[in-house]
Each structure stands twice: as C-alpha cells, then as structure tokens.
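User: Um, any thoughts?
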Amino acid sequence: MRKWNVGVLSLGLLPFLLAPAGDRDEKKFAELEGTWTIVKMEVAGKSLLEKDEKWKLIIKDGKVTTDARDAPKEGKELAKYLDPNKNPKTVTIPYEGKLVFYGIYEVKGDELRVCGDGVDTAQEKKPEGRRPREFDSNKGLLLVFKRDKK
C-alpha cells in the first residue's frame, strides 16, 4: 500500500478543481467555490484519516489553500489538470518525480469526490489503464469532502 502525505496530497492532488485560465467556464466551476472539509480518505476500505481529523480546502478565485498538516500555507493556482468533458470527469496530476496521479472527480450537491491512483510512468506502459472508472477505495485513493455551510 502506498503511503500518502496529507499536506502534499491536499495541494498536490487538487489542481484538478478548475479548468485552465483561458478555458475557464465560471458557471461550470462556480460549484467548486467555497470551503470543503475532508470526511473520508481511504484505500482498500481502510481510513487514512486520524480520529477527529477534519482538514479543509478553501477554493476561491482559482486558488486552493488548505489547513492540512505539512501543507504549504500559500495558495496554489489551479490550472491545467482536468478534463471535464469526459464521463467521469478526469484529473491527471504530476505528483513527484515520475509519479502521476490518474483520477476521476465529481461534485454532487455539497459533496466532492475524488478517486485515483499514483502511477510510476517510468514503469507503467499504459498508465491511463490505472485510472479508476468508479469512486471505490478498492480502485484507488478515495477522497470525499463536504461543503461547509456559509
């Protein structure tokens, strides 16, 4: 099982939330604006969250910040990592070295779900095949966020 660094994960895996600046459809991505609290982070049905761990993502004006442990405090520009035209919507994010996160995401009401896997692109001949097709922790890392009420 891969060990995940929550701080790096929270900012390194979340640039998928908005389209590139030149292609940004404000109405389409307005649903992502706000403060989101992690409620689930698991792999193979096992929680990676510590008891009472509830870090937040704050998405505003094309930037994401987080209060997760070990995360940088400056906001990170969200740029070029998603394809909202696929079904399910996809996210592909360079993570570290030749490790790339291949994932999917969706927003339903006040819930944001992300599921994906880190793939060593130097070793894997068909990394796209590792992208999950469903939101299941047996298919990859599953993250679930709930939107905070204003």
